[in-house]
Amino acid sequence: MITREFSGKTEKEAIDNALNTLKLKEDQVKIELENKAGIFPFGKKNIVVKVSYDEELAFGNRCLMLVRDLLEKMNIEAKIYLLEENDEKVVIEIESPDSAIIIGKQGKTLESLQTIISVIMNKNSTVWTKIVVDIGNYRQRREKSLEKLAMSYANQVKKTKKSILLEPMNPFERRIIHMMLKDDNNIDTQSEGEGTIKQIRILYKED
After folding, report:
1. Which pTM value belongs to this model?
2. 185 is in which domain, residue-wise?
3. Beta strands in the chain, from DSSP E residues, in sequence order
């Protein structure tokens, strides 16, 4: 069993905070009122509850199991590891001889897998937990590649003073391009297109 403490201005708020953070239902946990005597700053009373639940119901473990089940349905052999888990972020690493299939062209399959996991696991929750699914350190390698690509195209734009429209990218990839070039006084970037997959245009601007 795992036991954690949660607090709120009222007992209901404390319990709601616990269930939203853990993404569990009330019948999946054991709730024990810890005290009603604690004090928040400015004299606000602090209601504390102890929430206990089975380890297999932990959010990170459920994310891991969902990744495993999806890969099994795709007939892909893989080992899945939970590398990091806190209330804001879960990191899952996949190890598989079929890594190229899981990553897909320009990482689109991996991104789709991560999106599916995130939507399912955060469904009906008011607290969004970021879920990162990676394989073979692909995301870090892709980030370095995109940073080099951004600098190369930015230099080309500054030489020609003509804009360049990049290939369609997911939000993760576009953010890398935007962040890499945001401090360049002669370069501006803007996303073009509809939906999740968009293109970035790199434009020249006068300092």
Report:
1. 0.71
2. 140-204
3. 2-8, 30-39, 45-53, 79-85, 89-95, 130-135, 164-165, 187-192, 199-204
